[in-house]
Automatic annotation (TrEMBL), chain B:
Protein name: Extracellular solute-binding protein
Signal peptide location: 1-24
UniProt organism field: Agromyces kandeliae
Any one Pfam family match given in the protein's UniProt record, by short name: SBP_bac_1
Keyword hit for Transmembrane: no
Keyword terms: Cell membrane, Lipoprotein, Membrane, Palmitate, Signal
């Protein structure tokens, strides 16, 4: 369930946010203020209605998920799908955590590890790469950048099978690395980092720190990375969500249950509920719980994310 | 997906071939592809992929008793949801597990891709054949006399689940023939209900009906495949259900959805022609109807007949490239014939065994509370002796199901008919076989 909802939510926000920023920027001068009320009645109501419809559209499935998670198996089909029956959420969560020695918790931890650690490493790599492409002049720079840019266009799904065959050759399938290594590569992160490094790290500052005797690495980690921070949060969030939702790669790579991320684990359960109906409750409750880490990450980093996207789009 | 796979296959063909010969060089057998079935003489570890929850418990019991043959369980989604594709990828990459769960209708696909070991080279396997129901063995011998590409694990003999309370209250006799079934359907429609729901998506259920009618969808003479989706029996079954659909005597909810469950739970739909594993589906999907269901043998095409269809069932197969055929076969036999394993599998995952002795397990002869205490598994045990052993699946069942299902959806909405759907399926199946260079008999 979460896999179905999240990609839409994330793909929608970058489209909406920059415009939001832009409009707010325009709204500050007094001129727009005076013009505001006349068009607001019509266009603002219209905008609000559109927003409300979309909010409703995105929230109803989550509401359904929440309600369904609180029911026992019998009530799931026999009671109103959008309203509570007997409130059993905590019993259901307990049963889920008990099932098969808590394999679900293991999956959550795996997901956090793949997505959290993977996104951190991916962000650092992307930042260094983007920074280098923006601030150093060397032969082949544009070629490298264009190749990376081309990488943005190749969907991760198309790469999963070739990756599987490659990893098979080095006997790394069905290991932690099979999912982790491909996850630390983020062409989009490199692109964003380069754009942002060009905009926000002044050459004068770099020269100053060189004059003061700082090495290139030190300059990068103490000066530049701070200036790039908002963009890096964006890269981190993007990559975190991408890895969290990347379901096809684990599907192809992993066979051992203890390595599964939560999306794949839930999918595996969900694929057998016709045969094993008792899994249905676990899939529902598991899906509900699995979106919580994403929500927390977004709420915590939302501020940076907006700034990052805004600055990127202005440039 | 297929195209990507093809392209990659082509690109990596040389390297894969090198890898394969590299592995094969280690094997003793150099004559042909028939691996020998000899014990390794040392401790071995087998990899086994299955999506059955709780199968680890059975494997743990085996591992305790067989320190020299340890089995590691790997898991994944249900076969058609990804595990089969993974098997194919792994076969290409040369790192397939030793053993895997494969449903009967998918075995021919793996067979034509040369992904399976012939277990009949193992004496133990040949000796065990008599323990299985003839027709379950037929599902793994794939129509041959002396080959076996898996050990049957479970089966899905079909019978009639019906609301005994509603039939009784309304004075309607439980149908024993399909003619009576139609008559009952009219009587039930007058009460505002439907006799059953015709599923547009469960094409293997429909195949079960054809199977019961003595029809076949595929045949293989050793050289080429016959495609017979429009055989007489198949058309007869299609016309029968078409008539029920056109006269609004059956509902057409998409199966396995909430509204489908609700139709059963609310008593709108009265019967379900389903397999033995359907017993749990009803119990979980229609909990309010507990105690009101019974099971009878399926309606027959002619009064006095005794034929049953089958829906589902799977086998444990051994993949090409294993170094431990003997041990793998030994484990697969134990898993699917020993009382110990079958009891665990039945308790953990409601696996309905494919052996004759397995049908007499204590858990399978007791009354079931949800069915008013009826010993429903006795009915299925009887049905399973009535299944035709000659029914063969084709090598592209996923495609067949998808194409026929498309047509059936049209029939359910009234824009086409079931027979037309089968005709289209027939044509597209032949195309699909030819596209894969699988010989088709004219």
């Amino acid at each position: 369930m979460s896999t179905a909802i999240e990609p839409e939510a994330t793909s929608a926000s970058p489209a909406v946010n920059p415009r939001g920023i832009g409009r707010r920027g325009d709204a500050h001068p007094g001129a727009t203020r005076g013009r505001g009320p006349r068009e607001s009645l019509f266009s603002r109501t219209g905008a609000m209605i559109v927003m409300a419809v979309f909010t409703f559209y995105f929230l109803v499935p989550i509401w359904w998920l929440l309600v369904a998670s609180t029911k026992d198996r019998g009530q799931l089909f026999s009671t109103n799908p959008l309203w509570f029956a007997d409130f059993q959420l905590f019993e259901n969560i307990g049963a889920l955590f008990d099932y098969r020695n808590g394999v679900y918790l293991r999956w959550i931890l795996n997901s956090l590890l793949y997505a959290g650690l993977g996104a951190v490493v991916a962000t650092v790599l992307a930042a260094m790469c983007g920074y280098a492409l923006a601030k150093y002049r060397f032969p082949g720079r544009e070629t490298i950048f264009n190749v990376v840019l081309g990488g943005v266009l190749v969907p991760a799904t198309a790469l999963a099978l070739p990756l599987f065959l490659l990893f098979s050759r080095v006997q790394l399938t069905d290991t932690f690395w099979a999912v982790f290594l491909p996850s630390v590569v983020s062409p989009f992160g490199v692109y964003l980092s380069r754009v942002f490094a060009e905009a926000s790290v002044p050459d004068e500052l770099l020269e100053a720190s060189r004059l003061d005797g700082a090495g290139e690495l030190r300059t990068f980690f103490t000066v530049s990375i701070r200036l790039m921070f908002p963009a890096l949060v964006t890269v981190f969030l993007f990559q975190f969500v991408t890895i969290w939702n990347n379901f096809f790669l684990p599907l192809i790579m992993l066979r051992s249950e203890e390595l599964f991320p939560v999306t794949y684990g839930l999918y595996a359960w969900n694929s057998t509920i016709n045969q094993f109906p008792e899994l249905r409750t676990y899939v529902l409750v598991g899906s509900l719980l699995s979106i919580i880490p994403l929500i927390i990450t977004f709420l915590l980093l939302q501020r940076y994310w907006r700034t990052g996207l805004g600055s990127g789009s202005l440039k | 997906m297929r195209h990507t796979k093809r392209a990659v296959t082509a690109a990596l063909l040389t390297s894969a071939a090198l890898a394969l010969t590299g592995c094969a060089a280690g094997d003793a057998s150099s004559s042909g592809d028939a691996a020998s079935c000899e014990p390794a003489g040392e401790d071995v570890t087998l990899e086994f992929t299955s999506w059955i929850p709780g199968i680890e418990d059975a494997v743990a019991a085996w591992n305790d008793e067989n320190p020299d043959i340890q089995v590691e369980v790997q898991t994944g989604p249900n076969g058609n949801s990804g595990t089969y594709q993974n098997f194919f990828n792994q076969l290409e990459a040369g790192n397939a597990p030793d053993l895997g769960q494969i449903e009967y209708d998918a075995l021919p696909n793996f067979r034509v891709q040369d992904g399976l070991e012939n277990l009949a080279v193992c004496e133990d396997v040949v000796a065990a054949q008599d323990q299985f129901l003839d027709w379950t063995w037929g599902q793994v011998s794939l129509g041959t006399d002396d080959e076996a590409y898996g050990i049957p694990q479970d089966q899905g003999p079909m019978a009639l689940f019906y609301r005994s309370d509603l039939f009784e209250q309304n004075g309607i006799d439980v149908p024993t023939t399909w003619d009576e079934y139609r008559t009952a359907a009219e009587a039930i429609r007058e009460q505002g209900g439907y006799i059953t729901n015709f599923s547009q998506t469960d094409i293997n259920q429909f195949a079960g009906f054809v199977w019961q009618a003595g029809g076949e969808w595929f045949a293989n003479d050793g050289d080429a495949w016959d495609v017979e989706l429009t055989s007489d029996a198949s058309v007869q079954v299609a016309e029968y259900w078409q008539d029920l659909i056109e006269n609004d005597l059956v509902s057409t909810y998409p199966a396995w959805t909430d509204e489908w469950n609700n139709a059963y739970n609310s008593g709108e739909v009265w019967t379900w022609n389903s397999a033995v594993w359907g017993a749990n589906s009803i119990a979980s999907g229609a909990p309010d109807t507990a105690g009101n269901w019974s099971v009878a043998l399926a309606p027959q095409w002619a009064s006095g007949d005794a034929a049953a269809g089958n829906w589902g069932g799977s086998s444990i197969a051994v993949f090409k490239g294993t170094d431990h055929l003997y041990e793998a076969a030994k484990f697969a036999l134990w898993l699917n014939t020993s009382d110990e394993a079958l009891t665990i599998l039945n308790e953990q995952a409601a696996i309905y065994p494919a052996t004759k002795a397995g049908l007499e397990l204590p858990t399978l002869t007791a009354g079931v509370e949800f069915y008013g205490g009826q010993a429903i598994y006795d009915v299925f045990a009887e049905a399973s002796t009535q299944v035709d052993p000659d029914f063969v699946w084709g090598p592209t069942m996923t495609q067949v199901y998808a194409d026929v299902s498309d047509g059936f959806k049209g029939a359910a909405s009234g824009s086409s008919t079931l027979v037309e759907a089968l005709e289209k399926g027939q044509a597209s199946t032949i195309d699909a076989l030819e596209a894969q260079s699988i010989p088709v008999a004219e």
